[in-house]
Design a protein that fits this description.
It holds the Pfam family Abhydrolase_1. The protein is an alpha/beta fold. The chain contains 13 helices and 9 strands.
């Protein structure tokens, strides 16, 4: 009889874990939003304050570390992550737009206007429509790299809806800021691959180049990360169109000057794609913003920098909610940024 009771208890515990609102294995849902079909995942209770995560160029929702999402959810946040249009499982509806990245890159280097099938402001509208679809009026917003640029537009389009803004490793797209390393531009543009193995090697090369020189890379781990993304969704044409949207983006200085959203800007001193002055420039143009510079951080979420990243982000989020003591107490030391 004792064995039977034990089995019943274990079964009940397993069922409770599976039904946990903070289970990051929650199914991916699809939202039909006008010209786009957006894949997203919502983790947490509907009644908790919402935190929307916006990923960078070519990144998928799975590139946000599950450990971080689980910890944020346990601390009382409803965390929503999604695939930007044209990557992961999200797609444009209708005929696929034609675009020439080579021609656009030449115009960009010459300082000429670049045409793109869509713009970052359109991608910002996607995020706002997703929140409409979920019935969420107000939310906190966190964007990384290109996702930070999109988040800037979201905060400008709907300032009354964004309770706080966190910008990681991003830029104002202003003229005169330091350029990315030439090697990185070549790696970003290198999206054609004859087979899966070559594609994985190319992505691992890019991830390595985006990492901190202070942190030795495990090539096998980078290849596993590349394989996970490739096997979920491999769509280089979409990434090229996203890159065109970035190249076509004008300076957002005027936009930043008019933002009045509580804002945290976090940037690494070793960022090879968007050197540290990009983050400094963003913070300088958002009134009342807080700037945190992390020594050695580059342009990837690497576990070596988890503590300063999490301390900065969790303190900013906690300050905007009445449950700040709970959040501050639960986040520190629990979440882990993984490669």
């Amino acid at each position: 009889m004792r064995w039977l009771l034990l089995i019943v208890a274990l079964w009940g515990a397993s069922a409770a874990i599976a039904a946990s609102p903070c289970d990051t294995r929650a199914p991916t849902a699809m939202a039909e939003l006008g010209e786009v079909r957006l894949a997203y995942q919502s983790i947490g209770r509907d009644s908790d304050p919402a935190l929307l995560l916006v990923m960078g160029l070519g990144g998928q929702l799975i590139d946000w570390p599950d450990e971080v999402l689980g910890s944020l959810c346990q601390a009382g946040w409803r965390v929503i992550r999604f695939d930007n249009r044209d990557v992961g499982l999200s797609r444009l509806k209708g005929e696929e737009p034609k675009a020439s990245l080579t021609y656009a890159a030449i115009r960009y280097r010459l300082g000429l206007p670049v045409e793109a099938p869509y713009h970052l402001r359109d991608m910002a509208a996607d995020g706002l429509q997703l929140m409409d679809e979920l019935g969420i009026e107000q939310f906190h917003l966190l964007g990384a790299s290109m996702g930070g640029m999109i988040a800037q537009h979201m905060a400008d389009l709907a300032p009354e809806r964004v309770r706080s803004l966190t910008l990681l490793m991003t830029s104002s797209s202003a003229q005169g800021l330091p350029a990315p390393r030439a090697q990185l531009l070549e790696l970003l543009a290198r999206r054609e691959a004859p087979n899966r193995q070559v594609a994985l090697e190319q992505q691992a090369d890019l991830l390595a180049a985006l990492g901190s020189p202070q942190v030795p890379d495990d090539r096998a781990a980078l290849l596993r990360q590349a394989a996970r993304s490739y096997d979920r969704a491999h769509y280089p044409q979409g990434i090229q169109r996203q890159l065109l949207a970035v190249l076509a983006e004008p300076s957002r200085v005027e936009l930043l000057n008019r933002l009045r959203v509580p804002t945290l800007v976090v940037h690494g001193t070793a960022d090879p794609l968007l050197p540290v002055m990009h983050g400094v420039h963003v913070a300088a143009h958002i009134r009342g913003s807080e700037l945190v510079l992390i020594p050695g951080l580059a342009h990837r979420f690497q576990s070596a920098f988890k503590r300063p990243l999490l301390q900065a982000v969790q303190a900013h989020l906690a300050a905007q909610e009445v449950q700040a003591p709970q959040l501050a107490g639960r986040l520190d030391g629990e979440a882990v940024w993984v490669q």
